[in-house]
Each structure stands twice: as C-alpha cells, then as structure tokens.
Automatic annotation (TrEMBL):
SUPFAM superfamilies xref list: CRAL/TRIO domain (SSF52087), CRAL/TRIO N-terminal domain (SSF46938), Supernatant protein factor (SPF), C-terminal domain (SSF101576)
Protein name as annotated: SEC14-like protein 1
A Pfam family of this chain: PRELI
Organism from which the protein derives: Chloropsis hardwickii
Primary location: cytoplasm
Keyword Phosphoprotein: yes
Keyword tags: Cytoplasm, Golgi apparatus, Immunity, Innate immunity, Phosphoprotein, Signal transduction inhibitor
Keyword Phosphoprotein: yes
Region (Disordered), start-end ranges: 189-239
Amino acid sequence: AAMVQKYQSPVRVYKHPFELIMAAYERRFPTCPLIPMFVASDTVNEYKSEDEAIHVIERRCKLDIDAPRLLKKIAGVDYVYFVQKNSLNRRERTLHIEAYNETFSNRVIINEHCSYTVHPDNEDWTCFEQSASLDIKSFFGFESTVEKIAMKQYTSNIKKGKEIIEYYLKQLEEEGVTFVPRWTPPVACKSESSTSHPRRPVSPAINIPESATKEGLSNKEILNTSSSPSEPTAGTPDDKLDADYIKRYLGDLTPMQESCLIRLRQWLQETHKGKIPKDEHILRFLRARDFNIDKAREILCQSLTWRKQHQVDYILDTWNPPQVLQDYYAGGWHHHDKDGRPLYVLRLGQMDTKGLVRALGEEALLRYVLSINEEGLRRCEENTKVFGRPISSWTCLVDLEGLNMRHLWRPGVKALLRIIEVVEANYPETLGRLLILRAPRVFPVLWTLVSPFIDDNTRKKFLIYAGNDYQGPGGLLDYIDKEIIPDFLGGECMCEVPEGGLVPKSLYRTAEELENEDIKLWTETIYQSASVFKGAPHEVLIQIVDASSVITWDFDVCKGDIVFNIFHSKRAPQPPKKDSLGAHSITSPGGNNVQLIDKVWQLGRDYSMVESPLICKEGESVQGSHVTRWPGFYILQWKFHSMPACATTNLPRVDDVLASLQVSSHKCKVMYYTEVIGSEDFRGSMTSLESSHSGFSQLSAATTSSSQSHSSSMISR
C-alpha cells in the first residue's frame, strides 16, 4: 500500500488587508491565465446570509493535468475534476477553502485545506496557510508514477500561489483599487449608526517591537513577557513558521522540505514539552536523512535523550575544562571563513593526543569536544544575525604539521573514533568544510583508520593538501581571507590557539584514577535508566512520612511503549531478591530492573492505585507530580505496554503488525528522575514546581505549560 503523502505549508504573510486580498483572490475565477492547467470552473452551489457576512460558494473545477499522453489514455480521461468549496466570513474576516478530487475518487483521495485569516499582530495584514494529503489506493499499476506527477504538479502550484495573488494585487492597483472597505452590519435603525465602526471580536493586538522580531525571537517569547501569565496566549501563530522567517534564518527550502520541517516541529511540540531544539537544529537532522521525516525523527529523538542524559544544554555554563586542556589542547575559534561560517583551527600535529588521553581520560576529552560543538552552534546563530543570511555550519582547519607515529597510538585513535561517532550522531550537518593542511607521509595510515567512521555527506566536505600545496592556486586563499590566515601558516594574523606541546608525564594518571574520573563524568547525570520487559516492570519505592508531600517525576521513554502507574501501600514491600531478574540478569549494567510488588498482593487489598494509568509512546517525555494524601509507601511503576488486538475487526491492522514486529525484543527502556518535595518547601504554587526540578534545556522556561492540574502527569501530546 502506498504511503499517504502529507503537505503542510509555512504561514505566508501578505502585508495587505484581508478585503484587498479577497478582491485579488476572486479574480482567479472562472479561469486564470497564470494557471494554464486550470481550464474552467462552474458554480455548483451558492449561499449568502441575509446580512451578506457569510458567502459560501462551491465550484467544480476542470484541470488539464500535465501527464504523459499514455497515462491519460490508460486512465481514459483528458481532464480531472475537483470540487472546491469556499466559505467566506466577512465578519470574522476569514476564507476557508476545502478541495477534493471528483475524478478517480475511488482510486485516489486528494484533500486540500487553505485558509486566509487576519494576522494576529496586525489587522491590516493577511496570513495564508495550506495543507493537503494525497492517498493513492490504486492506479492501474502506475501508483508511483501518479504519485510523482501529483507531487510535482502540486509543489509547482504552491510556488505559483503567491505570484498569482501579487499579480492581481498589482492589476487592482493599476485600476486604482488600493482599498476595499470592511464589512459592516446592515443598519437597523438610526440610533445604532453612531457606532459606525464595528468592533472586531478579537483579542487586542500586542505590539511586537520591530527589534525583537529581527533578533529572531519568536512571538511566543515576546508574548510571554507582555501578557500576564494567567492569560493563555492561544490564537497566536507563535508555534508556526512563516515563509519569510524560513528564508531569512533557515535558507531556501523546497515546499516539501518546508513541510517536513513544519511537521517534525509540530510533532516535537506535541511530544516534547519544554525542550524543543531550535529550528535550524531540527533542520540539520532532516538534511542528514535527506528529509525522510521518520528517519530524521528517530535520530533526533535519540540525540535529545542523549542531551538530557548528559546535561549537554548546560555544558557551556557549568563545565570548566581542566587546566591541562586549556594548556595543551591546540585548538580554538578564529574569526570566520569567506562564507561567513565560524572557523575552528586545530593544530593536531602539535597536539600530544597520547599525553592528553593519559592525563585526562576519554570522557573529559569527549566533553571538551562537545563544548566546542555547542560553542559552534552558538556562533552559527550569531553569524546568521551578523551576516543577514542563514549560516548553519562551521569550517574546520586542521594543521597536521608535526604529525608522527605517536598520533597512531591505539587508545588515542580509539578515543578519536568515539568522539567522531558521538559528534556525527548529535551534531549532523554542522561541518561545512574541513581543510586538512600539511598532511605528512603517515597521514594515509591515520586516514584509513578514521574514514570508515565518517558519514559520506561529511567526507565530501574534506579538502586535503600535502606539504605547502595550500599556499598555491586552489589553496587556502579560496576559502579564507588573507587578513586572517594564521601566523603559523605564514599569514599575518596572530592566532590565539595554544601551541600544544608534550603533556608532562607528571600529569599522567593511573588507569584506575582515570576510570573513576570517567565514571564520575558519566554518572553526573541526575537520570537513571531502567529496562522494562514483558512480565517484568520496573518499580521504584518512595517512602512518605509527611502526608502532604509532593512526588514529582520526569522521564523519557527511549524505546518501546510503556504504561506508567503510581500505587500506595501501607505495608512495606519486601526488598527485591537478588535473583528476581531471572533470565534478564545478563542485561547490560545500565539496565536496572526491579520488582517490588509481591506476586501475592492484591490490588485494592494490599495496595491501591492513586493515579489513572498513563500510556506513554516511544520517544515521549513525561513530567508530572502527585500530592500525597497519606503517609506510607508509594510505588512508581513502568510497565510494558502490549498492543491490544484491534477491536473492530479480527484482521490485525497493518500498524499493529508493524508495531509488534518492532518491539519483538520485548524490552523497553526508560530514563527517569524522581524527587519528593516536602510540603514546607512547597507553598501551594504548583507552577513553581513544574520547571524547577527537571533537567530541561534552557527552552523550558518559555514552553513548559503552567496550567497542569496538581496531580496529573502532563504527557506532552
């Protein structure tokens, strides 16, 4: 069966009032020379309300689809008919358009919805949005051809939509029409006419300072500062992207690429409350998977979980690199290249990788590289503002002068490979270009070891120069301005990057010390991970002494679907026996799995459920809290969620079959954090609780919902 293709547009803003846009839009009918395939249209139905505020018109449109002759012959049609229903509401100033195909409606289902509405922040501007779905059930064996034709025609028409409105606006202007009055209710008696201007039933427009929008702040952040927290800021398209913003900050995307970005972003907003990555970062993951939305979603979710687990969002503010790194790590940021990308200089040949690994261990080194990447993301944003165009990657200049056999020390290479792997997985599409200079004779050996770990897309961006070739034609000057070529490469620019040099052996630490150090860095995360198996839930015990405490939780479902429960018991459960894992005891050290509820206990007699069960899907983030009513023992439980058989039919649904195949391993993974807040620290204000305890990214302040009821889990859907 073919996939249903979906399309969702960004918001397009016309800086003209709604009424004028309507006058332009109406000129497309009955035919429009700018859309050659739109041959004719007839009105089938029409309705006008008495006060003329509502006007609904249904048309049958005849299209001459640009398809191969042969296909038309097989299909037996020359034209395709669509039904388009336009509902204009002059009082609310909205036009809704619904369209669907009449021809082949049993084989192909096309639905389109468009809307013209008033811009929420400026009532003299108009917003346009469209979404569509295409589902090809069967087409004489030509399903994929038809899909390609349909998508091609559709995306070329999307681009035309704007030109058409602008063409007719210009035509109106040439005829002297630059203003169309708003609808006013018909006057019943004289006394009412004194209030000549009808009030629009809308929330007051909030004036957004020009500078704020320029700085790339979303409306949301601004609205949050200007309205009191009790007012919901609903109705503002703060969570939508507009076409101009995409062009300015994200680059030229095709309609389908825009659609993928918008849909993935929407999915994140529904499932990952409080920690949505920036748009340019979501886009990097889409690019890394050629805009396959499912593959991109998978790697992005893994990366979000990883960021949360290792508190990567706080690395720049909270982690101070050890002095050894500051002295001997020969790398640093140095201006920007000719394209405006941040430039990172690494004097790898001068760097004692063996000494650094021996003095610091792999983890500290990895963490340092992560902080460099985080800084890179920050610099890209900065340069995007400064240069007035989207810059989403950086350039790396690696100088290999001095590279020798010491660099091929196995543990050093192993550390390097692991760093490359982590960076590839979590910072895709961030390397714009890699210039490798002064490559010596041993370089090919190192390259053979390293290159298999590097993504093909990334490898295309490598330029390698042996000896002094970089000074010749096609060399460094093509990529970097003469003024900033570093002194050690024969340039005039003082480069602040440390010289490197050998790390003194006195700073080396024993394998044991390093291991303890590594473990400390790994376990710095406040999250614990647990495995959940079919028939073996994971349970956590919380003992409550003070009746009105608050139990809070924050967890991510990394793999599989689970059911989350919270129980209360007066009796203390038996501590779990060591062998309770049975067959699962061979799981990895990270897979802790504990059962506390005794098999003989009965629900309702020995223990009770205090919250209704919550089903959580793979990739979801859940935060919530429970105000305890009694002292005693509370048990948080994460349980395997098995798919119920489809109720309506005996045949399994395709989704169910696929889902059961995916979780055939019958193992789920959860990363969780729980905390109990005493009633004395907690004075009724539920909102303070919500974002205070969780390891969210900096974004949470703006997006965590504060309307959560005080004993509920907020599953972000």
